[in-house]
Write a structure and sequence with these properties.
The complex is a heterotrimer of chains A (257), B (178) and C (352). By secondary structure, chain A is α/β, with parallel strands linked by helices. Helix content of chain A is 39%, strand content 16%. Chain A has one domain: 3-Layer(aba) Sandwich (Rossmann fold), CATH 3.40.50.970. Chain A has a seven-stranded mixed beta sheet with strand order 2-1-3-4-6-5-7, with helices on both faces. Chain B has seven helices and six strands. The interface between B and C is medium-sized, with 21 and 25 residues. Strand 2 of chain B pairs antiparallel with strand 8 of chain C. Bound molecules: thiamine diphosphate, iron/sulfur cluster and magnesium ion.
C-alpha cells in the first residue's frame, strides 16, 4: 500500500496467518501506526477477541488481554478502569460485537467507557468458517444461509447497522465508519482511528471505529473481487463517514475555524 | 448459658430491630450471638420471623428449631410458636393482639399488653421495645444494661431524641413480668 | 491494635473484609440472597475512590473482574447460584490464563431459578471446575460471619499467591445472618505479591505480556496443563484446611461444611450428652479437599450432612477408599437440617 512506509515499531515484523486479501492485517497496521505516532507503545493494551484476530496479540508489540467470545468490552472495561492513563483497544469482529456480545457492547458504550472499540465488520464469521453474521447482507450467502440471508421467509433477520444503533446511546462520543478496500478509504480510516485514540487519551467517553473489511476466503472471492464487493455491496448499505462526533476536541476545532 | 429465642409477628412490628438489638446488647455484654432473619419471598407476605441465639459458648446451628423462649407478637404467629417451643419453655405473648390462651400447659406463659403499654407511652411503634424489656426480665439472658449506648450507634442521629422513650418502653416491659 | 467486635450481616462482613484486603475493583449484578454485599461494595468502593460497576449481567461482571485482574489489580465479584452458573465461562478463562480473582457465592437452592433460601447444591460446580476444561480453583467454606470475613480477606492473598480464582462458598444463611465479628486489619499494599505477568505499565525492555488462555498447539497446551496440575499437587500439600472435634474416640464422625457443620456441631453436642461417641470433621478448604486426613480416618463410620441431595458425600466416600461406611443425611430445596434431625439420624445409625 502506498501510504505505508517503514514498519511500525508496535507491530512485530512477522508474517501474519491471515488469508491473502484479508482486512485484519491492514487494520493491525493502521492501529500500530497511530500508536507509534502517539508514542503509546509502552502504555497500550489490546483486548483481542475470539475470531480470526485472536492472533492479534502475537503480532502486536504491546501488552494484551484475551477474553471469552463477545466479552471483549467487559474485559476492556476492567482493564481501562484500572489503567485510565493507557490506550485501551477493544478489537471486535461482527459476531463478537453484534451477536454474542451485544449486551456487553451496548452497556459499555452506554456507560461511556473510555476505551476505543475497533469493530471489524466483514459481514461473516471468519474464524469458524463462513457462517452468517449479524451484519451479513440480505441475499449474501453463508454456510448457515445457503440460499442467501433471507430476513422474511426464513426469519434470518436483517443486517444490523451497529453505529447508527449506538448513536442513540448518550455515552457514545465518537462513531465513525471506514473501509480498507482502497488507499483513499484506508487513509480516511486511519484518521478516524487517530481521532478516536486521541479522544480516548483525553478521557472523552466511548469511541468506536467500524471498519468494513474483506474476508475473501469466506466470501468465496479472490482478493480483487472482494475489495470490489465492499464497494459495490457493503458501502451502499453501511455508509462511510463520521456517524456521530460529539468530541470536545472537535468542538474546539470547529469553533476555531 | 444458651438462650435460643424465636421471634414472630408481622412486618412493621419491629421484629427485625427487636432481634438485632437483643443480640447487639448480648454481644456488648460479652456473649456469643447470632441473629438469622427469615428473608425473601416470605417477608413480602407480611410475616416477620427471626432466629435469635445468645450464649456463653460457641453457637452451633443458627437456626432456632426448639426455642427456650418464643416471642409471639401477633395472633397468626401463635400456632407456630406453640408448636416448636421447647418443653417447659417461656412463651411471651403480646396480649394486646393475641386474645386466646395457649394450649401449651407446660409453658411458662407471660402476657404483655405491648401495644397498650406502648400507646400509653406515646406511640405503638415502641411495642417491640416493651417486649424486649419483658424478654430480658423473663429470661435474664441479656441484661440490656448497655442498651442506651447501643441505641446511640443503632439509630441515626436524627432519631436519638426517641432514645429516652425506648428506655421507658424497656422498663415498662420488664415491669409487666411478675 | 485489633478492631472492636462488630455486629454484622455476613454479606456486609465479606464486603468489608474485601475492602480491607485491598480489593481495587468490584463488579456485580443483583441477585438475592447476596444483594447487601453488592450494595455494601457500591458504597464503600466509591467512598474509597475505587472501582465499582453494576454490570449488565453476571457474564459481563466476571469478565470485567478478569480484565481488571489482568492488569494486576485485586478484583472480585459476588453472586448467588444462578449468577455463578453464568460466571463459569469467565472463571474457566481466568483459570486458563492463570489470573487471580475472587468470587463469592452466597448460594441458594437449585437447579433452575430455584428458590432464594440457603442451600449447598453448588458443591460439585465449585469443586470440580464448574466451567469447561481441566482445572480446579481454591474453594473456601466459611461456617460463620467471622470466618466469612476472614476467608474473604485471605482469598485475595491465596488467589495472588497461587495465580488462580479463589471462591468463597457461603450460603444464604451465612450471608443473611448477623453475628459478632472482629474484622482483619487492612492489608498493607506493600505486602502484596508482585505480578510481573500483568498487562499494562510496560517498562522499556520488558517483553510483551499476554494474559491469554489460547493454546492452539496441542503439544504446548498439554505441557501448560501438566504444569498447572503440578501446582495443584503442591496446593494439596500446603493449603488444605479443616477443623475436627472428638474424631479420635468417635464411633461416628459427622462430615459437613459451612452451615451444615454448625448444625452438626449442635447435634454432636447433644449426642455426647447422651453418651454417644460422635465426632465432627469440617473441611474448610473444599478444594483442595482434606483427602489425606480422611484417608487417615478411613475405617471410622461417617455420616455426611449437607443441604443438598448429596455431593460432598462422594468425596468422603472417595477418600475413605471403601474402608468406611459412609451414610448421608441431606435436606435440599432451601430446607435447613435441624440439630434434632441429625441427632435422630445419629441414633438410627448407632442403634442407640
Ligand atoms: C462461547 C463461544 N461460542 C462460539 C465460539 C466459536 N467462535 C469462534 S470465533 C466465532 C465467530 C467469529 O466471528 P467474528 O466475531 O465476526 O470474527 P471474524 O473471525 O469474522 O473476524 C465463533 C462463533 C467460541 N469461541 N466461543
Ligand atoms: S477467514 Fe476471512 S477474516 Fe479470517 S483470516 Fe481469512 S480472510 Fe481474514
Ligand atoms: Mg466477522
Amino acid at each position: 500500500m502506498e501510504l505505508i512506509y517503514g514498519h511500525p515499531k508496535s507491530l512485530k515484523p512477522i508474517q501474519t496467518k491471515y488469508c491473502p486479501g484479508c482486512g485484519h492485517g491492514v487494520i493491525h497496521r493502521l492501529i500500530t501506526e497511530v500508536i507509534d505516532e502517539l508514542g503509546m507503545q509502552q502504555k497500550s493494551v489490546i483486548l483481542n477477541p475470539v475470531g480470526c484476530s485472536i492472533w492479534a496479540s502475537i503480532y502486536f508489540d504491546f501488552d494484551s488481554v484475551q477474553v471469552p467470545h463477545g466479552r471483549t468490552p467487559a474485559g476492556a472495561t476492567g482493564v481501562k478502569r484500572m489503567l485510565p492513563d493507557h490506550l485501551v483497544i477493544c478489537y471486535q469482529g461482527d459476531g463478537d460485537l453484534a451477536a454474542i456480545g451485544t449486551a456487553e457492547a451496548v452497556h459499555a458504550a452506554n456507560r461511556g467507557e473510555k476505551f476505543t472499540t475497533i469493530f471489524v465488520n466483514n459481514a461473516i464469521y471468519g474464524m469458524t468458517g463462513g457462517q452468517m453474521a449479524p451484519t451479513t447482507l440480505v441475499g449474501q450467502k453463508a454456510t448457515t444461509a445457503p440460499y442467501g440471508r433471507d430476513p422474511v421467509e426464513a426469519g434470518m433477520g436483517y443486517p444490523i447497522r451497529v453505529l447508527e444503533m449506538f448513536a442513540t446511546l448518550e455515552g457514545t462520543r465518537y462513531l465513525a465508519r471506514g473501509a480498507v478496500n482502497n488507499a483513499a478509504n484506508t487513509r480516511k480510516t486511519k484518521q478516524y482511528i487517530k481521532k478516536a485514540f486521541e479522544a480516548q487519551l483525553r478521557g472523552e467517553g466511548s469511541t468506536m471505529v467500524e471498519i468494513l473489511s474483506q474476508c475473501p476466503t469466506n466470501w468465496a472471492m479472490d482478493p480483487v473481487e472482494s475489495v470490489e464487493w465492499v464497494e459495490s455491496d457493503m458501502i451502499p448499505f453501511y455508509k462511510l463517514g463520521e456517524i456521530k462526533d460529539e468530541l470536545q476536541g472537535s468542538a474546539v476545532k470547529e469553533a476555531a475555524k | 448459658m444458651t438462650e435460643k429465642t424465636f421471634m414472630a409477628g408481622f412486618g412493621g412490628q419491629g421484629i427485625i430491630s427487636l432481634g438485632q438489638l437483643w443480640v447487639y446488647c448480648g454481644m456488648k455484654e460479652g456473649l456469643e450471638v447470632t441473629f438469622f432473619p427469615f428473608y425473601g419471598a416470605e417477608k413480602r407476605g407480611g410475616i416477620a420471623r427471626a432466629s435469635v441465639i445468645v450464649s456463653t459458648e460457641e453457637i452451633a446451628s443458627p437456626l432456632v428449631t426448639a426455642p427456650d423462649s418464643a416471642v409471639v407478637m401477633n395472633m397468626d404467629s401463635l400456632p407456630l410458636c406453640e408448636a416448636i417451643l421447647k418443653e417447659g419453655g417461656t412463651l411471651l405473648v403480646n396480649s394486646s393482639l393475641v386474645k386466646v390462651d395457649t394450649k401449651r400447659t407446660d409453658a411458662r406463659v407471660i402476657k404483655v399488653p405491648c401495644n397498650e403499654i406502648a400507646e400509653r407511652l406515646g406511640d405503638v411503634k415502641f411495642a417491640n421495645m416493651v417486649m424486649m424489656g419483658a424478654l430480658s426480665k423473663a429470661t435474664g439472658a441479656v441484661k440490656l444494661d448497655k442498651l442506651e449506648a447501643v441505641l446511640k450507634t443503632f439509630f441515626s442521629e436524627s432519631k436519638h431524641k426517641f432514645i429516652p422513650m425506648n428506655m421507658r418502653a424497656i422498663e415498662e416491659g420488664a415491669k409487666a413480668v411478675s | 491494635m485489633a478492631d472492636e467486635k462488630r455486629l454484622m450481616k455476613g454479606n456486609e462482613a465479606m464486603g468489608e473484609a474485601a475492602v480491607r484486603a485491598g480489593c481495587d475493583a468490584y463488579f456485580g449484578y443483583p441477585i438475592t440472597p447476596q444483594n447487601e454485599l453488592t450494595a455494601y461494595m457500591a458504597k464503600h468502593m466509591l467512598d474509597h475512590k475505587r472501582v465499582f460497576i453494576q454490570a449488565e449481567s453476571e457474564v459481563s461482571a466476571i469478565n470485567m473482574v478478569y480484565g481488571a485482574a489482568a492488569t494486576g489489580a485485586r478484583s472480585m465479584t459476588s453472586s448467588s447460584s444462578p449468577g455463578i452458573s453464568l460466571k463459569q465461562e469467565g472463571i474457566s478463562y481466568a483459570c486458563g490464563a492463570d489470573v487471580p480473582i475472587v468470587v463469592i457465592n452466597v448460594a441458594r437452592s437449585g437447579p433452575g431459578l430455584g428458590g432464594i433460601s440457603p442451600a449447598q447444591g453448588d458443591y460439585f460446580q465449585s469443586t470440580r471446575g464448574g466451567g469447561h476444561g481441566d482445572y480446579f480453583h481454591i474453594v473456601l467454606a466459611p461456617k460463620s460471619v467471622q470466618e466469612a470475613a476472614d476467608l474473604t480477606f485471605e482469598a485475595f492473598d491465596l488467589a495472588d499467591e497461587w495465580r488462580m480464582p479463589a471462591m468463597v462458598l457461603a450460603d444464604g444463611m451465612i450471608g443473611q445472618m448477623m453475628e459478632g465479628v472482629v474484622l482483619p486489619q487492612p492489608k498493607d499494599p506493600a505486602t502484596r505479591v508482585a505480578k510481573p505477568w500483568a498487562s499494562g505499565n510496560r517498562p522499556a525492555g520488558r517483553p510483551v505480556n499476554h494474559v491469554d488462555s489460547t493454546h492452539l498447539v496441542p503439544e504446548e497446551f498439554e505441557q501448560a496443563n501438566i504444569a498447572r496440575y503440578k501446582r495443584y499437587d503442591e496446593m494439596k500439600k500446603t493449603l488444605v484446611r479443616y477443623e475436627e472435634q472428638h474424631v479420635e474416640d468417635a464411633d461416628l464422625i459427622l462430615a459437613a461444611y459451612g452451615t451444615s457443620a454448625r448444625v452438626c456441631l449442635g447435634a454432636m453436642q447433644m449426642a455426647r450428652k447422651l453418651g454417644l461417641k460422635v465426632g465432627l470433621f469440617r473441611p474448610i478448604t473444599l478444594w483442595p479437599f482434606p483427602e489425606k486426613r480422611l484417608g487417615e480416618l478411613a475405617g471410622k463410620r461417617f455420616l455426611t450432612v449437607e443441604m443438598s441431595m448429596g455431593q460432598m458425600v462422594e468425596d468422603v466416600r472417595l477418600h475413605t477408599r471403601g474402608k468406611s461406611e459412609v451414610s448421608f443425611y441431606g435436606r435440599c430445596g432451601g430446607m435447613i437440617p435441624t440439630e434434632e434431625d441429625v441427632l435422630a439420624e445419629i441414633r438410627r445409625i448407632l442403634k442407640k
